[in-house]
Amino acid sequence: MKTIIHRGNSRGHSDYGWLDTRYTFSFANYHDPARVHFGALRVINDDVIDGGGGFDKHPHDNMEITTIVTEGTLEHKDSMGHTRQLGSNEVQVMTAGTGIFHSEYNADAKIPVKLFQIWVFPEQKNLKPRYDQKVFDPSERNGKWQRLVSPDEPGALMLNQKTWFSRISLSAENNTTYTLHDASHGVYIFLIEGTADVASARLETRDGIGISEISEISIKAVNDSDLLLIEVPMQW
What we know:
By secondary structure, this protein is mostly beta strands. It is about 0% helix and about 55% strand. A hairpin with a 3-residue loop joins strand 2 and strand 3 (about 20-25).
């Protein structure tokens, strides 16, 4: 088993006034050659967008992009013709493929919107761009894994990569396991809130751990905990 731990207070940080963001991996003006990606996982950005603020129209290509809104409402517009709003517990996926333009704004003039934006390298390049979104009932992840993203699983959103995003809420002293779909894959576990022991490591709020060369992961919540797990190929 190989592990790498990224403490929440060791992440990159930028404050643009309208945006306060922390980077698990190298992004924008934050660069750490030891923290460029974990397998096919390229980006985990922890964003807080002030009321009325947002990202102007900008391009992406050949990247699989997932946005998970935890508080507030985000408005999305793109060159595929979508104008959508995403609220708490809603997830958005995009295959950027041959190229898209999009903008993202806080839909509320006063209340901040909080979200995670996650990028995964694609399995195939230059596909036709696609978009989807879905609300996930938080009660359905109490004590069990709720699948958010999958390459082919009913009920989950699809990405163009052999990647699975799962979320779980564990009460204090409860435990769970996660079995990988492929022993050559790795998992990156991000602790959204709480305290938990993951593969013998103690994680606190906003800590992350990458684990590879293992087929099953054991997790025990020390305090009530909200965890996001991302399984990705280590080679693609």
